[in-house]
Give the backbone structure.
Amino acid sequence: MTKGKESKPHIGIFGRRNNGKSSLINVLAGQEIAIVSDFAGTTTDPVKKSIEIAGLGPCVLVDTAGIDDTGELGQKRIASTIKALKTIDLAILVITGNSLGDPENELISKFEKQGVPYFIIINKNDIINVNDTEREKLKTQTRVPVVSFSTVLNPDKEQVVSVMRELIPESAYRSTSLIGDVVRYGDVVLLITPIDIEAPEGRLILPQVQTIRDALDNDCICVVCKEREVDMVISKLQPRPALAITDSQIFLKADASIPPDIPLTSFSIILARQKGDFQNYLKGTPKIGELKDGDRVLILESCTHHVSCDDIGRTKIPRWLSNYSGKKLDYEVVSGLNDLPRDIHEYALVIQCGGCVLTRKQLLNRLKPAVDAGIPVTNYGMAIAWVHGIYQRAVAPFIQVDNNSVNYL
């Protein structure tokens, strides 16, 4: 399964082999997008499909392998199914009959541990009829909605979608504004976007595009320029910008060019606040100053891209961090949502990219092992601001507007 490429709500379909998971996906999607067979184990690895669901908008349905698979290969398939939970915003447990066995109970335990809301569909109701009394008993046992369903006999799709709309967290499909609470109607927002070797041909990178759209949605005026033109823009622009946002790589240039009375931050930092673990970033970033010789730093690069010779995560951040700390540090970079090469406790610091291609749930789950283990976590932009000595300025626009702000600085 290609993970972390769509920042839409992810809805996982779980259950034993041949319980009709793939058939359910086809019914919900209104088309045959999953292979259906009477042979158990047709679905081998989690498979994603984007669909539109009324009331939720664009979603990603994730078809998973059976939780009762057998053999060595089967155990690997089950492991892939469990791993998919880290990307799921809502789970649907598909059963047949009126009882839960060990595989279902173990899966429910994992739902609860991961904080994934779920409900149960009793499928194949045209073959194994479950009466209202039995369904209510199962509902009382699990304390979640239980829906009787048949993918063959007059499938009540709306009943299932209604429960999905009820249970899926609002945060999974309704994004908060990037800068809406730090700007006002008519404000000028200055975006500094370098066009260098890492810039994609003929377009801007996703965080820049998202910020432009968010500024426009908040009735602001966007002014976009490269770093070479910043001084000229500042000297001529009226009214003055209410906020300047820069690519983190040129923080020093932006800090020197943007007058102190104009708030300055970076694309990576506004993403960190929108969908990252911002409070833990604020707590973890100062720990950069406590790094020691031999410490291992984990760099989480959520997207996959062409690696240039001066890559931000693989080259620039390690160079800046080593120069700032004066210590001999070891660096490991993990792309996408791949497994870590070692136990999280072996790292002294975790640096997460902006996560523009991840859902908030995926990003928080990515960081959770480090947070639970007490390992400091930070973000590309916040770490860069810290080592360049402009951290307080870079986070100040957001600290000032947080109602429950804590003095992290």
User: Anything to note?
Assistant: The chain has three domains: 10-173, 188-270, 276-391. The chain is about 35% helix and 15% strand. Residues 82 and 301 are 22 Å apart (CA to CA). The two ends are 40 Å apart (CA to CA).
